[in-house]
Design brief:
The strands form 3 sheets. This protein has a 7-stranded antiparallel β-sheet with strand order 3-2-6-9-10-5-4. The protein has a single domain, classed as Roll (Pnp Oxidase, Chain A). The protein has helices spanning about 15-20, 70-75, 90-95, and strands spanning about 25-30, 30-35, 40-45, 50-55, 55-65, 75-80, 110, 115-120, 125-135, 140-150, 155-160, 165. By secondary structure, it is mainly beta. Keywords: Oxidoreductase. It comes from Streptomyces cyanogenus. It is an enzyme of class 1 (oxidoreductase).
Length: about 170
Amino acid sequence: MTATPDLGTPRLASPDLLRSTFRRHAAGVAVITARGSSGPVGFTATSLTSVSAEPPLVSFGIGTGASSWPAIAEAEHVGVHILGEHQSDLAATFARSGADRFGAPTAWREGPEGVPVLDDVLAWLVCRIVGRVPAGDHRIVLAEVVLGDPSGAGRPLLYHQGRFNGLRD
């Protein structure tokens, strides 16, 4: 590989290169939930994407080594929650390995299809899983929107440079 002076010093592909690059990419923060065989499960996701309007489809990635993966692998439905800037602690709880994600102070209720629905989020959806696509050490989950509520108040929570942040004007 020949370095071009205007391009700095390129690095060969590696997990570190990918992580370093995506730390510079601001992403919205969502929490994905599901009903597991031994209780509710959930995790923080910055990989949520709108895939299709007709039919309404979303996607998100999850590592196959994640504690939530066994439940997501078997679930028929998931909850998708868009977090507000006031919910950085909630995002951190659902991102932390070994945390009691559904214990106090997390406020939630059982929603449609038995999916755990978090309180006070900007928007939530209940989705039916329609596909799990292998992608390296992750799976890309495709899910069709069944119903939801986009009426929460506030501004979105973002993830950038390894931290949760609010949107700045």
